[in-house]
Amino acid sequence: MGGSLIVSYARARGEVSGVKCTGGLMQRGERLMLTCLVCLLAPGLGEIFHVTPGLLVRWVLGVIALGTLITAVYRTIWIARRLRDIVA
User: Which residues contact 65 (CB under 8 A, 6 or more apart)?
Assistant: First the structure.
């Protein structure tokens, strides 16, 4: 959840500084889509693969968390480089 806030915060801070950044692996749409899909499909997939549905949800949420962290770091570095180019 913290990573989601950081992704949005990095974009907002970049836009305030005059740098527009919409890139990254796990933006809001991707996070929402994966969360909805796993919640809808976990019970059926759990029966097919003989896994508890909660386990599938936890794995997907872990992937979302990791992707969100990578996106936050990517955006921060990308914005910092653009600001350095503007100043120089």
Answer: 3
Rounded Cα gap, residues 40 and 57, in angstroms: 10
Q: Please give the Cα distance from 85 to 81 (Å, whole number).
A: 6
CB-side neighbour CA atoms (13 Å) of 9: 10
**30 CB burial (10 A radius; 0-12, 13-18, 19+):** middle
Cα–Cα distance list, 88 to 1, 6, 69, 81, 85 (Å): 35, 27, 29, 11, 5
pLDDT digits (tens, 9 = 90+) for 9-48: 888 888 888 888 877 788 888 899 999 999 999 989 888 8
**CB-based contact 67:28 (threshold 8 Å):** no
